[in-house]
Design goal:
There is one protein chain. By secondary structure, this protein is α/β, with parallel strands linked by helices. Among the domains are: 413-577, Galactose-binding domain-like (Jelly Rolls, Sandwich), CATH 2.60.120.260; 743-867, Immunoglobulins (Immunoglobulin-like, Sandwich), CATH 2.60.40.10. 21% of the residues lie in helices and 24% in strands. Strand 30 and strand 31 (760-769) form a beta hairpin. Helix 5 (103-119) packs across helix 6. The radius of gyration is 28 Å and the shape is globular.
Length: 870
């Protein structure tokens, strides 16, 4: 097979040496060698084009063209497996990274991702996610950066440049408007030309201009009537022609819905294998004239160019996967954690580690380090909030969860033991036939030979990329076994959610049946069943024999529009002890009364924020709001730590101090403790506005798909643009965040360099740190307003530049920000289908949040001009 060392010819020269079959083979995920098509009977050619590989492109061994390996992002490098994956370093989620408002931090994150790609032998990293959050309820909102296109595009650019300088390709995603999970493969997002250009395409435009990502991934959804994977206007006219993009355009996984239309309109690569729309279908379309040879050449050339670019990485084809956990990575992750934590409401001083501290809340001991779906990974290690706090105090911390926030019952964890005696693990044996079969209306049990035997530690078993040659159609059956022991005699709930069919037994007694009369739920990216739950009394220390019989996805008759089933499906086994939360909340009140200080850990988790479904609630789930109210009612020295990827509502007005910590990656506990105890000063800023109630959100009435359509009725007034023009108060504004230091911004000055559409603005702002003892970092934000009456309705102001500046205690520093003039003042002109840079007077305002940009100056644009391109 080829590798990066023997692949020496430039891609343009290789193209002329490829046969038509070889060119076609490059256009989809990996399947058997193209040369086999001439040796295979016609009846088997379809099987040839349905070969399987979830994470690789097709190689051409004859010319030493290697297969390229891809790996999810966007907050780490998972590698080639959902199922039983190799551990990886986990960065904060997208909104957490964006909360740093720091190009330097993004560059460090990019270096860490590049190291992760080398460890996983991955040539293409599937990230960053750069969609715009219309609503806090979007299931994947935590993956993206911001509601503001400038912040999103600028941070994405820094990250991409850092990754790609190491020879690793970034696949910027999801192009475009993939901001809801509801019917995501069906929904038609109806967006005005102005909103499409100024809000949703702009982050991608900035990233392409400033970083040139080597690949772009199309979104699942439609935009204005066409699926993005075959959108002629956006892929060809805008991306290729207007912006001059020359990289590889690839589909999201199973996000290609046509053969000729997708190829003719610009989609180079269908992922993954087995192909559904390429291979034989392309050969047929070529033969009947629906696709031209020159178009095939153009698509193949893009894939070859991608291979040519990543050869600088030196990563070999099909290389090994490893999981380094280095001090360098730990240090980077801890700094990222410190830099993105927001102190939204600040105590007069940090929490004192010498005083009696009680740690309370459902998120205190659980390690919610990332969101759910394709952004999830198996971490090298995770430090919980409780562990991080305990590591910085000498006395043992009293702690309790107080209440639960289950969206699904928790996985089995340490209550199970594998047959070899390993606690927290179980055995899973795979077969090609079920344990019993029906013959003449009778059930018979026959001998089965296992095709795989695996010992696993996570009872959320995702089999999207599981494969075995003995089961080529992904029809497999599995028996899961373990000993189960609980510490307390009590009532316990057991659950099964499944993409497939499953039954759960204890000592051969059927406890949960999720194999008949199934109902669709939100599990497994929305393709699985609902969670079936049953309760049983268990006796402490008694050994129970747990057995689960599983059948893969094709054994289920469930279907759901817009939610394709991946691979062999999966099964989630849950268990939880009955909890009297009212009694526990009363106990928490007594603990809080006598404590010197209380840290309350609340929020969401990967079951609430995940690919496959949108959130149904804006409020904190469960009894968390009640918990906060009870604790703050008896103790005034309280810090509430929120873990979520997007805003949530709670009784924030009655809380003395609030910190928003996102999903913080491996080192989340250490970073949070550094801030709580004052070893570091918080410097994060909100990348999203935080509405008081969900009804205030601009997309509230039109966030989901109705009859396959979603109207973006708020138009360009997304996030703070809407709240400002409607004078609607928010809980906390865009760009907001406090510090233990005290910063004062001085009067800005503006110098315009050059002229016309090539001009740029140099903005200078003095920044003083008035704190005598605390050094820190401040984010200087530059907003633009049009003073002269405009030809179109504009937002009151828009973010056009920013920088993060370290200022030592009692010192002054100068912030300098360069902004292209045309992007600072232009709007999209629908009458000329171009950007309009209007002449007139503009106001430039600076501040440290969108509602504190009070210092301003004005400048003139002398001549009206139109422009297109980047």
């Amino acid at each position: 097979m080829g590798d990066m060392e023997s692949f020496n010819l430039p891609y343009g020269e290789l193209l002329q040496h490829l046969t038509t079959s070889e060119k076609i083979s490059l256009l989809s995920g990996n399947y058997p060698s193209p040369s086999s098509i001439t040796r295979t009977p016609l009846i088997n050619q379809c099987r040839y084009f349905l070969g399987s590989d979830f994470w690789h492109t097709q190689g051409i061994p004859r010319l030493s063209i290697p297969k390229l390996r891809m790996s999810d992002g966007p907050n780490g490098v998972r590698g080639t497996r959902f199922f039983n994956s190799v551990p990886a370093a986990c960065l904060p989620c997208g909104t957490g990274l964006a909360a740093t408002w720091s190009h330097d931090m993004m560059r460090e994150a990019g270096d860490l991702i590049a190291r992760g790609c080398h460890a996983k032998s991955a040539h293409v990293w599937l990230g960053p996610t750069t969609n715009t959050q219309r609503s806090p309820l979007g299931g994947r909102g935590f993956e993206s950066f911001s509601e503001d296109p400038l912040l999103s595009g600028s941070l994405a650019s820094a990250l991409i440049c850092s990754v790609q300088k190491n020879g690793i390709a970034c696949s910027l995603k999801h192009f475009v408007a993939n901001d809801m999970e509801h019917e995501r493969t069906l929904v038609d997002c109806r967006i005005s030309p102005r909103a499409l250009r100024e809000i949703y395409l702009l982050p991608f435009q900035i990233a392409i201009r400033d970083a040139d990502p080597w690949a772009i991934m199309t979104a699942y959804n439609k935009v204005n009537g066409q699926h993005m994977s075959e959108h002629q206007e956006i892929l060809q006219q805008i991306l290729r022609n207007e912006w001059g993009y020359q990289g590889c355009i690839m589909s999201d996984w199973f996000g290609t819905y046509s053969t000729a239309a997708a190829i003719n309109n610009g989609l180079d690569l269908e992922m993954p294998g087995p192909t559904e729309q390429r291979g034989k279908q392309v050969a047929t379309a070529l033969g009947v004239g629906k696709i031209s040879s020159s178009t095939i050449d153009a698509r193949a050339a893009s894939v070859l160019k991608l291979a040519d670019r990543v050869r600088a990485s030196g990563i070999l084809e099909s290389g090994p996967e490893s999981c380094p956990d280095t001090n360098q990575d730990r240090s980077v992750l801890r700094r990222r954690q410190v830099d993105h934590i927001l102190s939204i409401v600040l105590l007069a001083h940090p929490t004192n580690p010498e005083e009696q501290t009680v740690v309370i809340g459902p998120n205190s001991q659980k390690s919610f380090f990332c969101g759910g779906g394709s952004a999830s990974l198996r971490p090298t290690r995770v430090v919980s909030i409780l562990e991080g706090l305990q590591g910085q105090v000498e006395q043992p911390l009293e702690h309790t969860e107080a209440c639960q926030i289950y969206n699904q019952l928790p996985v089995l964890g340490d209550i199970v033991t594998a047959p070899d005696g390993t606690r927290g693990q179980f055995l899973m044996k795979f077969y090609t036939s079920p344990p019993t079969m029906r013959l003449n209306n009778s059930e018979i049990t026959g001998a089965r030979e296992a095709i795989d035997v695996l010992q696993l530690d996570d009872s959320n078993v995702v089999l999207y990329d599981y494969s075995n040659p003995a089961a080529p159609d992904n029809v497999v059956y599995a028996t899961i076994t373990a000993d189960l022991v609980v510490e307390n005699t009590d009532m316990y709930a057991f659950s099964l959610a499944v993409a497939g069919t499953a039954t759960l037994y204890l000592d051969d007694d059927l406890i949960v049946d999720n194999s008949h009369d199934q109902k669709r739920g939100t599990s497994f990216f929305g393709s699985g069943s609902d969670e079936r739950i049953n309760h049983v009394q268990l006796v402490a220390s008694r050994v129970y024999k747990l057995r689960v019989e599983f059948g893969s996805a094709r054994t289920s008759s469930l279907t759901k529009a817009g939610a394709p089933v991946f691979g062999a499906g999966g099964v989630r086994i849950g268990c939880a002890r009955y909890s009297d939360e009212s009694r526990e909340l009363d106990r928490v009140v007594e603990l809080a009364k006598t404590a010197d200080q209380v840290v309350v850990c609340v929020g969401l988790g990967p079951e609430w924020e995940s690919e496959g479904s949108d959130r149904s609630l804006y409020e904190l789930p469960g009894r968390q709001n009640e918990l906060i109210s009870k604790v703050t009612g008896v103790n005034k020295n309280v810090v509430v730590i929120i873990q979520s990827g997007t805003p949530v509502s709670g009784p924030w007005d009655q809380v003395p101090a609030v910190m928003q910590t996102w999903y913080g990656g491996n080192e989340l506990g250490h970073g949070i403790a550094d801030i709580v105890f004052g070893r570091e000063s918080p410097s994060g800023k909100l990348p999203l506005s935080w509405p008081r109630v969900i009804e205030d959100n601009p997309s509230f009435l039109s966030h989901t798909s109705e009859a396959g359509i979603c109207y973006y009725n708020e138009d360009i007034f997304v996030g703070y643009r809407f709240y400002e023009v409607t004078k609607r108060k928010v809980q906390w504004p865009f760009g907001f965040g406090l510090s233990y230091a005290s910063f004062i911004l001085g009067q800005p000055s503006v110098q315009i360099r050059g002229s016309g559409v090539e001009a740029s603005m140099l903005v200078t702002v003095p920044v003083r740190n008035n704190s005598v003892t605390t050094s820190g970092k401040e984010v200087i934000q530059v907003y633009m307003s049009c003073v002269t009456p405009s030809a179109v309705k504009r937002p009151i102001k828009e973010l056009k530049g920013f920088t993060k500046l370290f200022v030592p205690a009692s010192e002054m520093r100068q912030a300098t920000i360069e902004i292209p003039l045309k992007t600072a003042v232009s709007v999209w002109d629908v009458t000329t289908d171009s950007w309009l840079m209007e002449s007139g007077t503009y106001k430039l305002s600076v501040g440290n949040s969108s509602d504190s940009a009070l210092l301003s100056t004005q400048f003139q644009v002398p001549v009206t001009q139109h422009w297109t391109g980047l």
